[in-house]
Design goal:
Layout lengths: L1 H12 L1 H17 L1 H11 L7 H31 L4 H9 L5 H12 L4 H13 L4 H13 L2 H11 L1 H24 L8 H13 L8 H36 L2 H8 L6 H9 L6 H13 L4 H13 L2 H7 L5 H25 L1
Helix pairs in contact: 1-2, 3-4, 4-7, 4-12, 6-8, 6-10, 7-8, 8-10, 8-16, 9-10, 9-15, 10-18, 12-17, 14-16, 15-16, 16-18
Length: about 350
């Protein structure tokens, strides 16, 4: 009993040592996710190469991955809030000119290696910090859509012109979609618990500069309990659905459907891609296979963007944070941008 009490006091008595150990443990857990997920599937009476085996491995890997990212990012953001007030963060990322904050957030999204579901934790962290809604959406769109792995693979497979056009179009969608959502003033369509959390932090930041490191760590833990405690069921359900799609959707069907270079192929590709879920690196082999079967490049890129930027599992997780009207607006704006990209690529290449 005494040992448990000492363990509980450890973060406040040795805060810097606790932070160092926490980083090491988090990193080791993250690195062990792939072998652990493979070991779990191997322990089950399921063939690893079967549809069910692929879906289970995906679920065992992605669920703890997203939860670890959520816990780590929310904890760090909770500590950052004890140094930087929400008002200061909001002013910094709002920018003095229209679109500056959106451009900064979209640029940050390009260099962060997140899929659509993995980007949600940082999106929530930005909302916590009081970052304007439109700016947070620029990050949420750019992070999965303009992935550095996708850029490298596109450069290697199709050359620098395709990679550069993909980068520019992806950034433009993220920046202008964020600006448009910001202009619509839809802050009232954040879920009530998110808005309440923002107001509470704004009022409770007075005197933060005199906090000890132990108190800052406790503040970080408080954020983790509050946010992860509310969001985790949605993550499990969302990733579970993504795992089923990942394992059971037939690729041959997609290839035959998207191989037709007709005017409706682009919107059909977007509709087909939205329910799916994978990261940019995972969808590149599918892109290569579809192009080898004669599909138009713009149609295939529209499919790729919808898979990685508008996945159904992401929407399920976002539903805990956003009300349906704001989610519908987000889908409509981004889908419109993706359609434009598809048609422009088909027109110029």
């Amino acid at each position: 009993m005494q040992a448990i009490q000492q363990l509980r006091r450890f973060p406040t008595q040795q805060p810097l040592l606790f932070l160092l150990l926490a980083v090491v443990v988090w990193f080791l857990l993250y690195r062990s996710l792939i072998p652990a997920s493979e070991a779990l599937v191997a322990a089950l009476p399921v063939e690893r190469d079967s549809h069910l085996g692929g879906a289970l491995q995906f679920f065992f890997y992605d669920t703890p991955k997203v939860l670890l990212l959520l816990i780590g990012i929310v904890f760090v953001m909770g500590i950052i809030h004890t140094f930087v007030s929400p008002e200061r963060t909001r002013a910094m990322l709002s920018g003095k000119r229209l679109g500056v904050g959106n451009t900064m957030a979209a640029g940050l999204g390009v260099v962060t290696p997140f899929c659509s579901c993995s980007a949600v934790p940082l999106f929530i962290g930005f909302l916590q910090a009081g970052v304007p809604l439109g700016v947070t959406f620029s990050f949420l769109i750019a992070a999965p859509m303009v992935n550095e792995v996708a850029l490298i693979l596109l450069f290697g497979l199709f050359g620098w012109k395709v990679a550069a056009l993909y980068l520019v179009m992806g950034l433009l969608i993220a920046i202008f979609a964020g600006m448009l959502i910001g202009k619509l003033n839809m802050e009232d369509h954040l879920e009530d618990w998110v808005r309440k959390m923002q107001n509470t932090q704004s009022a409770g930041n007075v005197g933060a500069s005199v906090m000890s490191w132990g108190e800052r760590i406790q503040h970080g833990f408080g954020h983790v309990r509050e946010i992860v405690g509310k969001v985790w069921p949605y993550i499990v359900v969302g990733v579970g659905l993504g795992a089923l799609i990942h394992g059971f959707v037939p690729e041959d069907f997609m290839a035959s459907f998207m191989g037709k270079d007709v005017w409706w192929a682009v919107p059909a590709a977007v509709l087909l891609g939205v329910p799916m879920y994978t990261n940019a690196a995972g969808v590149i082999p599918i892109v290569q296979a579809l192009l080898a079967k004669g599909a138009a490049l713009g149609t295939v890129l529209a499919f790729m963007m919808s898979v990685i930027a508008l996945s159904l599992p992401e929407m399920i997780i976002l539903r805990k944070v956003l009300k349906p009207r704001l989610i519908a607006t987000f889908i409509g704006v981004v889908a419109t941008g993706i359609l434009l990209v598809g048609y422009i690529f088909n027109l110029v290449l």
